[in-house]
Design brief:
single chain; alpha/beta; 7-stranded mixed sheet
């Protein structure tokens, strides 16, 4: 479970950087569990990418489910969150045990691979995304989704979440360019879901309630 320090760090960054943080508190245990549904499943070692780990609430769930030969990469653009995660891998027993199998990259997900920091050879079996897509521009959302498609192996799975009814509610009270932005973001996300989503989970015991999408590429 997130510590008091995790909550304080998350709230501070929410107030400073709402558009890239997207929530007041870290993901709850139920949401983390749904996002990690496919971690540790299947034959052979998994290569896992977590996009936007924040303070590590979902990271902890991933580590708990990983097998000894699985590997985890994390990409975090917020330097405060990245520093918080580095301390976790130095100080928290669960994280320290998994540290040799984990790598943290500070930057944006669309910069990974040939366009930026190496992720070693090969693609990923699974992407777990905590990025607040509804806060970004439609161009950024399309770039991120294209990056996931590029980084995942054929048949690889993307698991990500959206807060229930938040985008429609924001569209209802928005006007002009903001309403257009939300509509275009929705079109980008729903277009991908209509082609690739194979499962959806409702997570009511979360603040706010969310659904988790599982998408196969």
């Amino acid at each position: 479970m997130p510590s008091r320090g995790d909550y304080q760090t998350f709230l501070t960054e929410f107030l400073r950087n709402y558009h890239t943080t997207g929530a007041i508190i870290p993901s709850g245990r139920a949401l983390a569990s749904a996002l990690c549904r496919h971690v540790g499943r299947g034959a052979g070692a998994q290569r896992i990418l977590e996009a936007g780990p924040g303070t590590g609430a979902v990271t902890a769930c991933i580590i708990e489910r990983m097998h000894h030969d699985d590997r985890l990469w994390m990409v975090e653009r917020n330097p405060t969150f990245a520093a918080h995660l580095r301390r976790a891998f130095e100080e928290k027993p669960l994280f320290k045990t998994a540290a040799p199998r984990c790598r943290l990259v500070e930057g944006s997900v669309h910069q990974l691979g040939p366009l930026g920091p190496t992720v070693d050879d090969g693609q990923f079996d699974l992407v777990v995304s905590g990025l607040p897509l509804n806060n970004f521009s439609s161009e950024d959302v399309r770039e991120i989704l294209q990056a996931y498609s590029r980084l995942l192996k054929p048949g690889g799975i993307l698991s990500f979440f959206q807060y229930i009814l938040i985008r429609p509610a924001r569209m209802y009270v928005s006007v002009g360019s903001e309403r257009d932005r939300l509509r275009q973001v929705g079109e980008a996300i729903e277009g991908m879901l209509s082609e690739r989503e194979f499962a959806r989970e409702w997570v009511w015991p979360n603040v706010p309630p969310a659904w988790v999408h599982h998408v196969r590429f």
